[in-house]
Amino acid sequence: MGKILVIVESPAKSKTLGRYLGSKYEIVASGGHIRDLPPDKLAVDVDNDFEPEYKSIKGKGKFITRLKKAAKKADKLLLASDPDREGEAIAWHIAQILKKNNDEVGRVLFNEITKKAVIDGVANPTKIDMRKVNAQQARRILDRLVGYMVSPFLWKTLYKGLSAGRVQSVALRLICEREQEIEEFVPEEYWHIHAILENKGSQFKAKLAKYKNKKLEIGNKSEVEDIEKKLKQAEFVVGKFEVKDVKKNPYSPFITSSMQLSAARMFGFSASRTMRNAQQLYEGIELGDQGPSGLITYMRTDSVRVSNLAKDQVKSFIKEKYGDEYLKIRHYKSGKSSQDAHEAIRPTDVFKTPESMKKYLTRDQFKLYSIIWKQFVASMMSSAIYEQTRTVIKGDGYELNASQKKLKFDGFQKVMPPRSENGDNDKGEIPKMKKGDICNLVKIDPSQHFTKPPARFTEGTLIKELEDNGVGRPSTYTQIISTLLTRKYVTRDKRSLLPTPLGREVLKLLVNSFPGIFEVGFTADMEEKLDEVEDGDIQWKDVLRDFYEDFEPKVTDVKKRGSEIKKIMEETTEFKCDKCGSPMVKKWSKHGRFLACSAFPDCKNTMPIDEDGNPVEQEKIDRPCPECGSVLTVKHDRRGHRFIACTAYPKCTYTAPYETGFRCPRQDCDGVIVEKYTRKGKVFYGCSNYPNCDFASWDPPVEGPCPECGSDVMFLAVRKTKTTRKCSVCGYSEEINES
Length: 739
Prior knowledge:
Elements: E1 4-8, H1 11-21, E2 25-29, E3 35-36, E4 44-45, E5 51-52, E6 55-56, H2 61-73, E7 76-79, H3 85-97, E8 106-107, H4 115-123, H5 130-157, H6 168-184, E9 189-199, E10 202-211, E11 214-215, H7 221-233, E12 236-248, H8 256-267, H9 271-283, E13 285-286, E14 292-293, H10 308-321, H11 354-357, H12 363-379, E15 384-395, E16 398-409, E17 438-450, H13 459-468, H14 477-486, E18 490-493, E19 496-499, H15 501-513, H16 520-535, H17 540-560, H18 562-569, E20 571-576, E21 583-589, E22 592-597, E23 606-608, E24 620-624, E25 631-636, E26 642-646, E27 655-657, E28 659-663, E29 672-677, E30 683-687, E31 696-697, E32 701-703, E33 713-718, E34 723-726, E35 733-736
Parallel strand pairs: 1-2, 1-7, 7-8
Antiparallel strand pairs: 3-6, 4-5, 9-10, 9-17, 10-11, 10-16, 12-15, 12-17, 13-14, 15-16, 18-19, 20-21, 21-22, 22-23, 24-25, 25-26, 26-27, 28-29, 29-30, 30-31, 32-33, 33-34, 34-35
Helix pairs in contact: 3-5, 5-16, 5-17, 6-14, 6-15, 8-12, 8-13, 9-12
């Protein structure tokens, strides 16, 4: 009798499942996607109702061979890729390659990788959900149509290698528009006035809020001084005093976006770092004698739903650990754009506390598991209760407010303590008072402030913004950000995301040339239509037809106006070509902006520019070209590397490595140190007499002399923690204090 073949995506998951299922099952990993639209062409037949042309992914041949071989020997085939649209599509592609129809395979879904969930899953297989498959096919084809029909336009207008993405471009738009808001922001001055008041020997702080029942807005120092005079003459009477209990409720369990945002804020994790560790926690951690186990449920979800089984378990844990008064089982509602296909992210076994698991986890895994565990447990606990004291103090038409909170019952904060419990009042305790009591003015404390621009997006806040606007889905967030960074449309400044000049130029070109396509509302509407495909409300090819009907005319128009658009994008400058006198225009290459002669192709002169757009004078070499006697200059290749070239090019093609100006440190060698590059483009420094002299260094040369041997050249080793000057002759080194 043959075995039951279970096909999963990752080797890590196959290892965990192998321990649970025993010898009658064979577990094989597909390595993720094995079939896709080929990268070298559109591969979508728009004239044949958008029929896709799928091919095996390059490099996946060994996986496919292994799957086919195992499938031939198996009596039963179960497909256990991840439980989302993409996983459903992977399962379908595997079935297609193995030439199996839907009735010949079983689809197994694991929301968690635990022994019970795995055994229950393989015992109750379903069929491949073709509605999910088609929703994923529609997304893939939409992305391919935009990418392959718009990207060539970017190549012709700016330079080859750029890309346009249906969703990534909207994310770029959010980042660019936020940066524009920051640049255009004009700070406005405003003031707060606090008064230190005294009653019954106790002092407390109150904030000025109203004048004659209208909200008070104070704009300058002159207004402050006028108010101060009036307050000093006023009699302050308690107009209202109340003490009541207020509740603070816990947050819902994590979904993908909230987990990524919390990990970024608390630990500085990037979205990819968070998801990498979450994947490991989901697929299975080796727990010593207990064997492997998945510690969290599936981590790509936008649902806050929690199973009854998990609620029963956490109920037992909270009762046992904290007592009945800390228990409150809650029912959270997912957002309107949620697919609600999965549970929230939670621990698979709440009794596996972070501290008990710490010895099995890496540092990052422990941090992430801790916040997932705490967020879930806290979400099913009682509210924290505070005693809130609030009072309104009146004087000469002015109203001042003071409030203070005291914790009476910690509730869920037993698990997740707040960062601060001081309440609103930090100047002593508000005394017990009643309406009509008199308060004495001790001090007036004005403070100047200025309005601040909106904060730049971080990875976490960008993902939250995308989710709030219905753009993208949990499985796409990390890839969106990764693409923007890889394409150099966006860069990181500490944790903030900043658009690069290239990113802004690309966005301007896309928005102006394809109106309506790269907009938040349009993209969110497409996501809703994909959800409708999954729900069976509309057909997937209807979505493609509707999109293409609007999209194709825009592409055709842009192709017709390509030369015109390119001319518009080429900004004419005040600088003149030093060879023919024509105006210079700004153009783009993969290494940034540069100046090119507007008389191209008759004149091919170019000039590098600095960050401000001003020409950078080319460095001249103090010797003539050895082949033709013309002036030598420093130029840059397509990778941005410096080299020496003859100014008479193309008549003279002489080139040489860039010289650093330092002699080779080897004794009896008359060579000089030049810049060289590895095949991957990394710079190193070697002797110009190579191969007769093989001196080489990764570190750049700096002026000597060496204190030990007198060598007139040393080398600067810059590392993460320190910078050192080293001598290659005698080995002397000294650390440089850069402070």
